[in-house]
Amino acid sequence: MFDYTSVTASAIGGAQDLSIEPGTGDFAQLVTRFALSLQDVRSPPADLIEQIVVGAVQLVPGARHAAVVTSEEPGRLAAKAVAGNGVPRDVMNLQNRGQEGPCLDAIADGKLILVPHVATDIRWPNFGPAAARAGAGAILCIPLIIDDQIIGALTLIGDLEAFDDEAQSLGRVFAAHAAIALASAQRVTNLQTALSSRDVIGQAKGILMERFRLTPELAFAALVRASSESNVKLRTVCEELCTTGLLAGKERTSG
User: Residues with Cβ < 8 Å from 197, sequence gap 6 or more?
Assistant: First the structure.
């Protein structure tokens, strides 16, 4: 049985008072407090992911290394954060090169994948021996799912048969909280990006309205046309107009 009272404060929010009563082993309380520590919307997604992998090594029994990975391109993994030495990145790169492995399958299928003996698992005959040589005894891949969308996977690496039923159950709970935190932070980032884009578009419209005495509708249409004719994103066209005074595809080629 894992001694949850040994978990360090750095894994669950650092300076926050997230301690549990000695000897209670109240893991549910500990995970809940860790999840709450991730809900600070002021933290950018990269910082949240870093906290997640550090917390995973501390909170999930048997985990010696951890990584949050995504698959932004089919068949290719990208590590968003890693805790431990270089083993998680080696494991990820082996899957990318061989196009097989538990993390790829977990993200593709949306199911937890346990590999108790990496070296001898017949599901990935090329990946297994190479990953074992890289230092992976056992691997647990838990998909991060939010609103029925798979946004990545929490990958845990340990010694042979490191992840028993308890570790798998706790890993699922941890991954669920991690997925919520990541999705929440990403929504904030997307909103900030959208607001920023709207602001720069508004400024660009104002420039054209003043310069050519256009209505807001005609100014926006001119920006869209410039974007289409120059094959440049609308936001980029607007940013260039605001910073240089030039409208892509029009004033750049005139004169």
Answer: 235
CA distance 128 to 33: 36
Token look-up 């410039």 returns 226
| 3-state percent helix, strand, coil for the chain, nearest multiple of 5 | 55, 15, 30
Segments in the chain below pLDDT 70: 1-28, 31-32, 35, 38-46, 181, 185, 188, 249-255
Report how many domains make up the chain: 2
Within a domain: 118: yes
The number of residues making up the chain comes to 255
Query: Around 31, how many Cα atoms within 13 Å sit in the side-chain half-sphere?
Result: 18
Tokens 């919307």 -> residue: 41
Residues of the domain holding 132: 4-190
CB 144 within 8 A of CB 154: yes
Residue type, position 217, single letter: E
Q: Which CATH number do you get for residue 37? A: 3.30.450.40
Burial 186-202 (b: 16+ CB within 10 A, else e): eeeeeeeeeeeeeebbe
